[in-house]
Design goal:
Number of helices: 8
Number of strands: 0
Structural class: mainly alpha
Number of domains: 1
Shape: elongated
Order of helices and strands: HHHHHHHH
Low-confidence stretches: 161-165
Oligomer: single chain
Radius of gyration: 26 Å
Helix content: over 70%
């Protein structure tokens, strides 16, 4: 799941930054980000002017960076960091669609990929929990080799431990 999401977000980021893949799609994205920049949450509260060009580039760069983390970097924490960055960009994207009164059809892809990122996090947490349980079980289990040594050196202790069980 990490590989597919990583590839997808790298693709989306490249579309936002450069027209190398599709000139028409890049042009459409540029016009959409002109609308998005007007409703960016900090624009109204801090009365900032956000250039749509930089907004689009930052979002695209974040998607490429996070996609590369999901795709190439081993390590659960780093992948989760990339996942959280992508979830934040999708939440921001959903907010901007809502703020400009886009139809649900325009919001649906962002919503679907947001839920896919949430599912990836849930699956990762389940794997982490399972690994933790397995490590705890291994730590509790005696290794047969020491039990035999313990029986030979102190048979009374072995008998007592059997009674306690």
């Amino acid at each position: 799941m990490s590989v597919l999401l990583g590839l997808f977000f790298i693709f989306l980021g490249i579309l936002k930054i450069t027209p190398a893949i599709s000139r028409d799609l890049h042009k459409d994205i540029r016009t959409e980000y002109a609308k998005y920049a007007k409703v960016f949450p900090l624009v109204k509260t801090l009365q900032l002017k956000l250039p749509s060009k930089w907004y689009r580039r930052v979002v695209g760069g974040t998607e490429i960076f996070s996609g590369l983390l999901l795709l190439l970097v081993p390590g659960r924490r780093i992948k989760n960091f990339g996942n959280i960055l992508l979830m934040a960009t999708k939440i921001l994207n959903l907010y901007t669609h809502w703020a400009i009164n886009d139809k649900f059809e325009r919001m649906a892809p962002s919503l679907v990929f947001f839920f896919m990122l949430v599912c990836r996090m849930v699956v990762d947490w389940q794997f982490a929990k399972q690994e933790k349980l397995e490590q705890e079980e291994l730590a509790k289990e005696p290794t047969g080799q020491f039990d035999e040594l313990d029986q030979k050196s102190n048979p009374a202790r072995t008998i007592k431990s059997k009674k306690d069980q």
